[in-house]
């Protein structure tokens, strides 16, 4: 993990996380220069390196300021940008009331270096609006908490996402921010950038197992949409609770290049429990037809192709029930999403659940077989008391 590699100032934030394997390496570049974003690059070289031209990156024309050396080692690259935070109230009988949008590219961000933990492989990017007329952020902040992994496992906090060494977790946190309405709900707009040849698809998975995330039986994967104004919420009939995955696939293949994965729940506590759950809904994957908010690292890496050959997709993720009471009471919201390369992790039944199921199903079957044997044995002894007639 490197903070602002090659730059001594902490006035801007750029965090480079690299995972090196025997024959390849993965690069995650997180930054709040402009809209907060992450650049993901997979290479075929274990010694590939991130290069940054800081003078150009901080200029008005950052195209070409970020690249991977050697360039021909790159096999796949994508980006995720967190663009806007919407707040609306479902006040009755007036219907939906939208408040002024929080544009994340206009936030003021704290130095990420203060929260960087090289041992736990975590860092937190925390910010507030540069101008806050309503003082909603006077006692609160918006944050993105990043966690990298050295091996596979499961996160210790709900929703207990399963991860691999090829993935990282991002936790979106809204803490202490005063809602502007009595029944406010929040919506996070997320955009992805894909180079030519790759497409995004939203997948949904269901499971009868609620061992790790009680009451959540479906996982969703995806992120992109087709048409429509991203500033307007899509249909009020969202995807039901699930595990979602936003996967990137080659146009002529079913193999998976990368993914975003999350469970359809958020939480209203720093130490989440089952009763702290907040409903989370993915409101449509669409091909974005608007200009991407300025994010210097995205422009710096993709350059001119960002507006020509690259595909920009977006998704709205909403938090809260019909009345938004959980957030209004606790003033805390956290939502976790896993992002990485290759196929997203898939939950399986743990040995404990398999053992319990085997005992639950095996015991009646064993009793049935034993009873049948006893009945046959008793019947055989009953008839064996008589001598056959010669």
From TrEMBL:
It comes from Zosterops hypoxanthus. Keywords: Glycoprotein, Lysosome, Membrane, Signal, Transmembrane, Transmembrane helix. Required to protect lysosomal transporter MFSD1 from lysosomal proteolysis and for MFSD1 lysosomal localization. PANTHER family: GLYCOSYLATED LYSOSOMAL MEMBRANE PROTEIN. The keyword Zinc does not apply. It is found in: Lysosome membrane. The chain crosses the membrane at residues 352-378. Belongs to the GLMP family. It comes from the Eukaryota. Its main location: membrane. Interacts (via lumenal domain) with lysosomal protein MFSD1; the interaction starts while both proteins are still in the endoplasmic reticulum and is required for stabilization of MFSD1 in lysosomes but has no direct effect on its targeting to lysosomes or transporter activity. This is GLMPB protein. GO terms for cellular component: lysosomal membrane. It is a single-pass type I membrane protein. InterPro entries: NCU-G1 (IPR029382).
């Amino acid at each position: 993990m490197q903070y602002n590699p090659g730059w001594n100032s902490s006035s801007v934030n750029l965090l480079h996380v690299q995972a090196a394997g025997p024959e390849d390496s993965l690069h995650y570049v997180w930054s709040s220069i402009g809209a907060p974003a992450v650049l993901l690059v997979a290479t075929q070289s274990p010694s590939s390196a991130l290069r940054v031209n800081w003078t150009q990156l901080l200029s008005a024309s950052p195209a070409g300021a970020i690249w991977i050396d050697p360039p021909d080692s790159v096999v796949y690259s994508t980006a995720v940008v967190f663009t806007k935070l919407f707040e609306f109230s479902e006040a009755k009988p007036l219907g939906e009331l939208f408040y002024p949008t929080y544009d994340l590219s206009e936030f003021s961000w704290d130095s990420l270096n203060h929260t960087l933990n090289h041992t736990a492989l975590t860092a937190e990017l925390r910010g507030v609006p540069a101008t806050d007329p309503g003082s909603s952020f006077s006692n609160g902040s918006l944050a993105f908490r990043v966690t990298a992994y050295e091996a596979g496992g499961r996160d210790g906090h709900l929703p207990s996402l399963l991860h691999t060494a090829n993935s990282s977790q991002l936790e979106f946190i809204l803490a202490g921010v005063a809602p502007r309405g009595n029944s406010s709900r929040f919506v996070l707009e997320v955009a992805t950038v894909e180079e030519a040849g790759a497409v995004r698809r939203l997948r949904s998975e269901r499971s009868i197992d609620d061992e790790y995330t009680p009451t959540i039986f479906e996982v969703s994967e995806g992120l992109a949409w087709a048409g429509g104004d991203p500033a307007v919420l899509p249909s009020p009939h969202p995807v039901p609770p699930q595990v979602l995955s936003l996967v990137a696939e080659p146009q002529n293949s079913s193999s998976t290049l990368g993914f975003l994965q999350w469970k359809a729940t958020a939480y209203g506590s720093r130490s989440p429990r089952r009763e702290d759950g907040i409903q989370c809904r993915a409101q449509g994957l669409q091909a974005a037809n608007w200009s991407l908010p300025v994010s210097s690292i995205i422009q710096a890496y993709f350059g001119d192709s960002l507006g020509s050959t690259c595909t920009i997709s977006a998704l709205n993720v909403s938090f809260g029930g019909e009345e938004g009471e959980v957030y209004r009471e606790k003033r805390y919201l956290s939502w976790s999403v896993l992002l990485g390369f290759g196929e997203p992790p898939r939950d399986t039944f743990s040995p404990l659940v398999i053992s319990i199921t085997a005992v639950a199903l095996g015991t009646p079957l064993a009793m049935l077989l034993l009873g049948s044997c006893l009945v046959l044995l008793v019947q055989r002894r009953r008839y064996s008391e008589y001598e056959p007639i010669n």
